[in-house]
Amino acid sequence: MNNRVRYLSAICINVLFPWLAYHLAYPQWGHLGALAASTLPLIAWMTWDLLRFHHFDALSAIVLVGTLLSLAVSFFIDNAHARLFEEPVISGLIGIAFLISLAFPRPLVFYLGRSTVAREQDGGTAQFEQWWRDNPELVAVIQKMTLVWGLGLTAENVVRLMLDIEWKDAAWIAGVSTILRYATYGGLTLWTFLERRRMKRMSPSALPAKRA
User: What does residue 92 show for φ and ψ, rounded to 5 degrees?
Assistant: First the structure.
């Protein structure tokens, strides 16, 4: 499997397949069983990717952790009212995890970046490790991205949680919450793309580029 196919497969498995598994399982197994079903594509992908390519998919791991946390919450409190608060709480914890990771030698965005480069080119893991050791600018960018994503995810989910508490019975709240979530992820993704381009213009060696 070439790198482009592996990259597209990762997007499908991390986003599309868990969503499909959840919605297919929900009518028969309910919310709790559907959440459990949505973890199966992630577990299967991570196992196959690790055994076949010796590659640990950090993005899949983060998605899986978020789903498992939702599953644990739903196991103890399985009702519609609790689920209103479940997603912003879990996503907010992931944002906090980004911020906490700044205290460690390698923050969370380091592992996401390394996983991306490993998928883009052969020997990408070792190459990214070398870039990390040799380029202080890359270290600064990774730390900055971790901070921005952590603050963005945490703030977004605090706002969503406050909206859910204040207007928990309003019919429109679910739509507003969904729009806010996608707007935040879209804004953070666009900022990350622009930041990467800016760093490449300033110092082409500061950030990894795809191999032709």
Answer: -65, -35
Q: What distance in Å separates the CA atoms of residue 26 and residue 35, rounded to the nearest whole number?
A: 8
Distance of CA 88 to the CA centre of its chain: 14
What global pTM score does this model have?
A: 0.68
Among candidate residues 15, 7, 176, 6, the one with its CA nearest the CA of residue 88: 176
Quick check: 59 and 91 in contact, CB under 8 A? no
Give the closest residue to 60 by CA, choosing from 33, 40, 77, 78. Answer: 40
In tens, the pLDDT along 125-159 reads: 788 888 888 888 888 889 999 999 899 989 988 88
Residue 184 three-state SS: helix
The mean pLDDT value for 53-57 works out to: 70
* Residue 159 burial by Cβ neighbours in a 10 Å radius (0-12, 13-18, 19+): middle
